[in-house]
Write a structure and sequence with these properties.
The chain is mainly alpha-helical. It has a single domain, classed as Growth Hormone, Chain: A (Up-down Bundle), CATH 1.20.1250.20. The chain is built from 15 helices and no strands.
Amino acid sequence: MSIKIRLIIMNFLQFFIWGAWMITIANYWFGTKHWQSEDFGIIFSTMGIASIFMPTLCGIIADRWVNSERLYGILHILCGLTFISLPMVDNPSTFFWVILLAMIFYMPTLALSNSTAYSVLTKNNLDTVKYFPPIRVWGTIGFIAAMWLTNLTGNKASENQFYIAGITAILLGIYAFTLPQSPPQNTSDKNKTLAELLGLDAFKLFKDYKMALFFIFSMLLGAALQLTNAYGDTFLDDFKYQYPDSFVVRYSTIILSISQISETLFILAIPFFLRRFGIKTVMLISMFAWVLRFGLFAFANPEGGLWMIILSCIVYGMAFDFFNISGSLFVNNSTNAKVRSSAQGLFMMMTNGFGAVLGSWTSGLLIGKFFTDADGMKDWYSIWLCFAAYALVVAILFAILFRYKYVKEEVPA
């Protein structure tokens, strides 16, 4: 089996796990368990809490002591076992701690999958900018496949979504041990400082003005990503009060999967946009795409405004890919091999860690205090306009502060 096929399988299963539950967990929380709405934000923040320290810690371990593909496999097996135990939980407090444990195992695998793929491609003399996006696109296809499976089998509010995720994670963990070896790149301890021995040298990237700003804005964009993940399906499902027989209500998860389908197209466009415009322009495109994503949702409805829902989902592909995938490639090409896994972990910490916590906590506070009435109904129009304004402010600040002159030769043809 070719290297590319093996990496495609890894990416497909990696995101299949995530897609099986992340978009539909709100339906399980509210519809099946009938737990309080104000507690839900903290469940989504578990991804952020775990991402604050685990990707960086595991990146350090992969850089120094353990093959990245082996660590990747161990984490997935542990993640799968934890997911399988979730349906046995009967109260929201315990549910929080169990899903936090699952995220502690899962979130670092996102960065490790990238560093493993980059390592394997580099060893086989394959350009990462050219070959990684077509491989990574299969991760998005896996996410879509899981969303469709969960929705079409009637499990979007069922505990079975966690069994689907857990069994897949265990299978991927076993498969990881068959991947090409990606040994530590930073094993020499001679003349190393304590910080270097612990792998903390990746944090020196913050001394560079360009990299520091990049990581700060990565955190701010990571907050925007959590807003749409946490509330997208609930937003569409709430149309049941006005449009009870709507296709959008019945198949909200499938409608949202248009976002992931869009991702598959925009991932393939990343090499062209990076070579043509550079990272700053690509990131700006992503930020303004977030403004459109939220703004279109504000005015959408299942009848006359259905096209806005669909267009918003299409725009999401650009908003997500031009930030996440391009950012990962930027970090890979801006750091040396000795700290590359640590740097990817740092990028993940800022986006899915601090960014996710910022987005989950702040949005939950704002929605609960200002945009929810006494009956628990949410003012989605104002919510999405508020989020759109946030993304617009971030985009303007980034355009002003991030001073980076792109040189075409920086991105190989």
